[in-house]
Specification:
The structure is a single chain. This protein is mainly α. 62% of the residues lie in helices and 1% in strands. It contains 67 helices and five strands. The strands form two sheets. Strands 1-2-3 form a three-stranded mixed beta sheet. A two-stranded antiparallel sheet has the order 4-5.
């Protein structure tokens, strides 16, 4: 009751007490007077409001107690007067007061919240009611009943205050309402109003959230009771039903808006999103039993999936593309994501499966749930595969169409989210039905069931799925092929109805894409790019293009060729497209008129300015890029807030959708396995499309910014799944991967040393996450910008980084150290909870191996054995500190226990061979180490680390010979490699430091073998054994690549031999009590291999020749008689390895002073006899040619011939040679024939190796002079060309000492001599026809097989066909000669040509017929007398 001026009862009392002394003599007298006054002027409702808040000024507690006591007295007095209990009177008056408070609102409509004044008045009332309850002066049950008798339902906030103040619980209040529908309606309308009010006023959001959570808590406690809770809640009979009804109505309120999101106003949608907060698990804390909460979420999920199941399966087939994650109503995806929080992926899939099997479902909601689950749950992919397998098994067990259609819809829906989430539909279809082991392969009935199902789908199918079924049909046994053909016919008919011709399908169409917007012209552009890739790799027209030009002519001519022949400014140097077009033109695959039109259009564009080129490129709207940037910025906000990590998968899906919009739909995204060709990257100059590069830069920048921002707040292991999902999403866009890997090549390989610490840290983490998603990345085909003897190397993405992280210069060493340290450190911090096995699966081995190479090389502290007690923990903040010294960070990582455990894994151990390959890459003049530091490092690595280490860890088991073999093999392998690092550098050059260490080891090994001389181990020459082993497994094939590889390999062998101490070419061994020199291994290697890389055909190069002779003299030091040892070896050369002596003859002017000086230094004695003989032969040859002295003949004649021939070649002009030849004695026939052989070898060398300085015309003239001299002496020389005859064995030593290629080209040399072939030769030499015919056949075979014949551009521009080496002209000359010679040959010449006749008739029928005609008399003669063969 308020007094004058609005003063309260307490104020009046207190005021009176202060103003004057009381007139009453006692308290009883005062109370009696007050009751008398109230009896005449009382207002009990106002009296109940006379309660202030609980914070009282000091000294007023007594007044408050008096007040409560006074009000209790008043209630009792009035209750007794009315004849009702005081508690009932208090309850009725409290309801009246609440009604007055609620009606005091100025709002015309019912609102769920009170005003500030109403809230204050209600607070006063509730305080008084609580005091009455404490004095048992308040009836709660009556209060609840009276509450529902009010004119208007109570305001929700008032009810909430009653509930929160423990005056009357919400459940008790709801139970007391006589009309359940009415209370449900009141609750729902109030809750909707509460949600709307919360979004209208920011100040009410917190209060609305509290009210909402408390109400829903009550709903869950009563609506989803557990067994343990039933006892204390049995008094509530209506409440569970009310709670269920309200929750269902509110869920319906939200679900009704799904699909109408664009039609609803923004406030309504915001109100619905506010209601969805009831599905936040954190709201309930411990107020709701966990089982009740799960039951509620499970019930809600079922309600959502089964809500309003009106859509038919046919609708789902047609519309499911619109229900992907990014296209689904955000209300629905938000609801699903909140529901998923309480369950694991396996539990959710199980729930989904149960609902599908037991309920009629809303397909839109089910498939949206599938998409959301696939996107937001990382482990969902395998679980979906298991579910699909289960559905297919049940479908084929019971021939159940429902399970079948469910499987297809789920598979298609999951595939819509991209390969980063689930396998493409085409791959799933092939995996399920593409082989005999599929579910349909068990019986004919199962096969019929499958095709009946597919046929029933056809009227509703979209084109992409029909294409998949046609291009990758189910496996069908031959006897049931008609079933498949019927279905294909039906599917093609449907495609025709859709105006999609199967003939217009692309050659390389991405059947995993469900985008129907790709038109034939767009697909044709993709086909052209794919065909160009294949052509660039193989230099052959792709088979698919050839087939299309024949069997798919409409698509080929209408779409493919116009896409290929788009006019452009042609480059000066023909590119791949020009070469491809030229190949098609030569194959008659481009009509002449179309080609002419194309060329004219290209010429007309040549005059345009460079800016016109951009018009050819597809324009990309800036709007999708701006949208992508906005979504990436939103992701960055989520990545730093742990409370929002659950929203990351959804945001990633949105970014993926925006990325698709930017890249366009004409992509190779999600290619099928059949078309999953390697990604081609040119390491030397990566080519990136301008639009793709900008997108890649945007994504990489976003990744780095997210990492740095997140690292500012949390270490990597607490940064959530954002970065992993982000990289996985990028990998799902397969058309972006070439640009991504190319850009990473630019940044790491080309620009690495110039990157700052933040960039390096970001790229290193990005590489780790790429390795995490490596299953989504095809192999990488890396080319190095230079022509190669072997195809481009194909790497996995983990191996690809090894190509980019090269350590050659001081700058690259520092960069690699920083990059690899950052990558490994990030891995250790990010996945610290992973097991050793899982950790090993994540990190690329090449990064760990690089660290094993770099850290000991640059840090002396790391060269010792790691201390077991060193358990340094990684601190991410220090690793990401820009000012950190990278060496200190690397040592911190190196000393970490877990990293050392990682190094013990076999896959991460850096072997000796791998260490050598890395060290050989270093440019010594630009090395980060000085020469002395590098020498110390080599010594430690080889002698202290790898030599004693066990082979299981990449070492040598203490075996020096094994270490030498590894070094030699590695040097050869490295030199054979053709990569960018060799550009501009000679691959023959070997790291001086490594070569020096090899020389040391070989010398040490030689000393050991001397001690073991005579033992079995000393009887083998390990060096030549290593070289032979490398060649053993390679075929002596005629393929050009094999020939070039072998030639390069042998040249490298020669270079290695020359780089080793000369004495290692020979061995010393004990023969009785005598030490002798053993050159058998060297001789065998020269005869079997090295002679085939002699450009002169009959002589080794100077370096290996000089090396052998120097080694011979050095090794003779171990002999008791050095001169005798040298003589024995050179004598053995005459029969076992004459090419060494031929080489000495060629190089003697340079060789003689070296050997004489060396012998004098070593022994100071006269030259050994055999060396002296070589010097005498050279001197005799010079004197014979210059002064006309007699030429002394001795055995063997071919060595004399070699010295004479080489001396002739060294003298110029050649005027006195013919006269000198005439001065040779009558017994010089073998000498002359040998001279002819050497001159022919030079003739061939002039054709195939013009850089050797041998002139073809000079060699030809010299050969003709020798031949003429032989003819004048009637010397038989044709047997020189025919090794099979017995008499020709004396020339075998010449042929065996020459390279195989020169011997194969003897037919060319032979027919170069035709001007000197006289008629007398045909009659005198009965074997001449056989030899000439045999050589002609060899010439034809060489031409037919495309082997060895020198081409015209190899020799010169002489007008003489024989001189310029035109193969066809050489053959024509030989053919004309034979056709003219055959009729002049005597009958005896035809006696032994029968073996050649069949081959000749096959290769040259006309010549064969001529031979057959003129050989008939000889055949008749054979019947009468024995033929005279020779």
């Amino acid at each position: 009751m308020a007094g004058a001026g609005g003063r309260s009862w307490r104020d009046l009392l207190a005021g009176r007490a202060r103003k004057r002394k009381s007139a009453f003599r006692s308290g009883a007298e005062l109370q009696e007077a007050a009751l008398h006054l109230l009896d005449h002027h009382q207002n009990l409702n106002d009296l109940l409001l006379e309660v202030e808040d609980s914070v009282e000024p000091a000294g007023q507690g007594g007044i408050e107690r008096q007040e409560v006591s006074f009000i209790v007295s008043v209630l009792q007095e009035q209750a007794s007067r009315l004849g009702v209990p005081a508690a009932i009177l208090a309850a009725k008056n409290a309801v009246t007061n609440i009604e007055q408070i609620c009606q005091a609102s100025a709002s015309p409509s019912q609102v769920p919240l009170l005003s500030l004044d109403q809230r204050k008045r209600l607070s006063h009332l509730l305080r008084m009611v609580k005091d009455l309850l404490a004095n048992n002066m308040f009836c709660r049950s009556l209060f609840c009943q009276e509450m529902w008798k009010m004119k208007d339902p109570p305001v929700m906030e008032a009810v909430w205050h009653l509930h929160r103040s423990d005056i009357v619980g919400l459940g008790e209040l709801l139970e007391s309402n006589p009309s359940t529908p009415a209370v449900v309606e009141w609750l729902c309308s109030s809750l909707c109003g509460l949600c709307e009010r919360a979004e209208d006023s920011s100040g009410d959001v917190e209060l609305s959230g509290q009210i909402l959570s408390d109400f829903v808590t009550v709903f869950l406690q009563n609506g989803f009771q557990q067994t343990s809770e039933l006892g204390r809640k049995l008094e509530f009979k209506k409440v569970p039903h009310i709670c269920h009804a309200v929750l269902r109505r509110m869920l319906t309120w939200v679900l009704d808006a799904v699909g109408k999101e664009k039609q609803e106003d923004v406030p309504t949608l915001q109100a619905m999103r506010f209601w969805l907060n009831v599905f936040n698990v954190s709201v309930y804390k411990s107020a709701v039993h966990p089982d009740s909460l799960q039951q509620f979420f499970r019930h809600t999920l079922t309600e959502v999936l089964t809500y309003n199941p009106l859509l038919k399966v046919s609708d789902a087939i047609h519309m499911q593309k619109e229900w992907s994650f990014t296209r689904t109503c955000s209300l629905l995806t938000t609801l699903f994501r909140k529901l998923f929080v309480s369950f694991g992926a396996k539990e959710l899939i199980s729930q989904l499966q149960q609902v599908l099997e037991t309920h009629e479902v809303n397909w839109q909601h089910v498939l949206s749930c599938v998409s959301t689950l696939a996107v937001c749950q990382a482990e969902a992919e395998q679980l979906f595969k298991d579910l699909l397998s289960h559905l297919l098994i049940k479908a084929f067990e019971n021939y159940d169409m429902e399970n079948m259609i469910t499987a297809f819809l789920v598979a298609r829906q999951a595939a819509l989210e991209g390969p980063a989430v689930f396998m493409p539909y085409s791959e799933w279809f092939k995996a399920s039905f593409g082989n005999a082991g599929g579910h349909h392969g068990s019986s004919k009935k199962a096969l019929v069931f499958l095709f009946e199902f597919l046929s029933e789908l056809v009227p509703f199918e979209t084109a992409p799925y029909l294409k998949v079924h046609i291009m990758y049909p189910p496996f069908v046994p031959t006897k049931h092929r008609s079933l498949l053909l019927e279905y294909i016919t039906l599917a093609k008919t449907r495609l025709a109805d859709l105006k999609v011709a199967i003939e217009d399908m692309g050659l390389y169409e991405d059947l995993s894409s469900t985008d129907e917007s790709v038109q034939p012209q767009g697909q044709a552009l993709r086909d052209v790019e794919k065909a160009l890739q294949i052509f660039e790799n193989t230099r052959k027209i792709p088979t698919s293009v050839i087939e299309a030009s024949i069997f798919r002519r409409p698509y080929y001519t209408s779409w493919f060729l116009p896409a290929l022949l788009r006019p452009r400014v042609l480059p000066k140097t023909p590119d791949v497209r020009m070469a491809f077009i030229d190949s098609l033109k030569r194959a008659d695959k481009i009509p002449s008129n179309l080609y002419s039109t194309y060329m004219q259009a290209c010429h007309s564009m040549r005059e345009k300015m460079l800016q016109d080129e951009t018009e050819v490129e597809p324009s990309h709207s800036k709007e999708p890029v701006e949208q992508l940037k906005a979504e990436l910025a939103e992701l960055r906000m989520l990545s730093v807030d742990q409370a929002k990590y659950e929203e990351v998968p959804a945001q990633i899906a949105v970014i993926s959708d925006r990325l698709t919009s930017v890249l366009g739909h004409g992509s190779d995204e999600s290619e099928t396995a059949a078309l999953n060709s390697p990604i081609q990257v040119d390491i030397s100059a990566p080519r990136l499309e301008r639009c793709h590069q900008s997108v890649v830069d945007l994504l990489l920048t976003s990744f780095c910014q997210n990492l740095i921002a997140a690292s500012y707040f949390h270490p990597p292991d607490r940064q959530g799944p954002c970065l992993s999902l982000f990289v996985k999403m990028i990998c799902g866009h397969r058309n972006l991967l070439p640009a991504l890997l190319g850009r990473l090549c630019q940044l790491i390989y080309h620009q690495g040393p110039s990157l700052d610490d933040a960039h390096i840290l970001g790229l290193a983490a990005f590489v780790i996450h790429l390795s995490e998603s490596r299953a989504l990345i095809p192999e990488v085909e890396a080319s190095f910008g230079i022509s190669q003897l072997v195809p481009e190397k194909v790497f996995s993405v983990s191996e690809y980084w090894n190509c980019l992280l090269v350590c050659r210069t001081e700058e690259s060493f520092a960069f690699c150290m920083r990059f690899c340290t950052a990558a490994a450190s990030y891995l250790m911090c990010k996945f610290s909870s992973y097991s050793q096995e899982d950790l090993c699966a994540l990190i690329p081995p090449s990064l760990v191996k690089k660290l094993q190479y770099l850290v000991p090389r640059l840090c002396l502290e790391a060269r010792g054995i790691p201390c077991e007690e060193a358990r340094t923990e990684l601190i991410w903040s220090s690793l990401s500190c820009p000012s950190l010294n990278y060496k200190r960070a690397s040592l911190c990582l190196w000393k970490q226990t877990r990293f050392q455990e990682l190094l013990k894994e076999k896959a991460f151990q850096l072997s000796f061979r791998e260490w050598l390959l890395l060290e050989l890459e270093v440019y010594p003049e630009k090395d980060i180490l000085s020469a002395s530091e590098r020498q110390d490092f080599h010594y430690w690595a080889i002698y202290q680390w790898y030599l004693p280490a066990p082979s299981a860890s990449g070492g040598c088991d203490g075996d020096l010979e094994k270490a030498c073999a590894i070094v030699i093999n590695t040097i050869l392998d490295y030199s054979q490699r053709s990569d960018l690092g060799s550009c501009g550098q000679s691959k023959m050059s070997v790291s001086p430091g490594i070569l020096c260490k090899l020389q040391e080891m070989v010398l040490e090994l030689g000393c050991r073998q001397k001690l073991l001389s005579g033992c079995l181990d000393a009887q083998r020459h390990f060096l030549f054994e290593v070289l032979r082993e490398r060649l053993k497994d390679r075929k002596h094939g005629f393929a050009l690549s094999e020939q070039l590889w072998r030639q390069q390999e042998l040249l490298l062998h020669r270079r290695v031999l020359v780089g080793l101490p000369a004495s290692t070419l020979l061995r010393t061994c004990q023969k009785g009590k005598k030490t002798v020199l053993d050159c058998e291994d060297f001789f065998h290697f020269v005869i079997s291999e090295l002679r085939n890389v002699c450009s002169r055909g009959y002589a080794l190069s100077y370096d290996i020749t000089a090396h052998f002779f120097r080694g011979l003299l050095n090794a003779s030091l171990d002999c008791e008689e050095p001169a005798e040892g040298v003589n024995d070896v050179l004598t053995a050369c005459q029969t076992k390895c004459p090419i060494v002596l031929f080489s000495a003859a060629l190089w003697w002017p340079r060789l003689e002073p070296v050997l004489c000086s060396q012998w004098k230094r070593l022994f100071g004695a006269p030259l050994p006899e055999e060396l002296e003989r070589l010097r005498e032969w050279q001197s005799s040859a010079v004197s014979f040619l210059s002064s006309g002295t007699a030429f002394p003949l001795s055995d063997p004649p071919w060595i004399l011939a070699a010295f004479l021939h080489c001396t002739v070649q060294q003298q110029s002009p050649h005027r006195r040679e013919r006269n000198a030849l005439k001065r040779l004695g009558t017994d010089a026939e073998q000498l002359l024939v040998s001279l002819l052989f050497f001159s022919l070898m030079d003739l061939i060398s002039a054709k195939i190796a013009p850089k050797e300085g041998v002139d073809f015309q000079t060699s030809l003239e010299w050969s003709l002079e020798i031949l003429q001299c032989l003819e004048e002496r009637d010397t038989s020389w044709p047997l020189l060309f025919h090794s099979a005859e017995e008499d020709a064995r004396k020339y075998h030593v010449l042929r065996s000492a020459s390279s195989d290629r020169h011997i194969r080209l003897l037919p060319v040399a032979f027919y170069s001599l035709t001007p000197c072939f006289h008629h007398e030769l045909l009659t005198r030499e009965q074997t001449f026809l056989y030899v000439a015919l045999d050589l002609y056949i060899q010439l034809l075979q060489l031409f037919v097989e495309g082997k060895d014949l020198p081409q015209s551009d190899q020799v010169g521009n002489s007008s003489d066909p024989m001189d310029n080496g035109d193969p066809l002209e050489v053959i024509s000359t030989a053919r004309r000669f034979l056709l003219a010679a055959i009729p002049r040959c005597p009958a005896q010449s035809f006696g032994n040509i029968r073996l050649l006749l069949a081959t000749c008739e096959e290769l040259d029928p006309e010549l064969g017929a001529t031979l057959l005609h003129f050989s008939k008399p000889a055949a008749a003669m054979e019947l009468e007398e024995e033929p005279i063969l020779f």
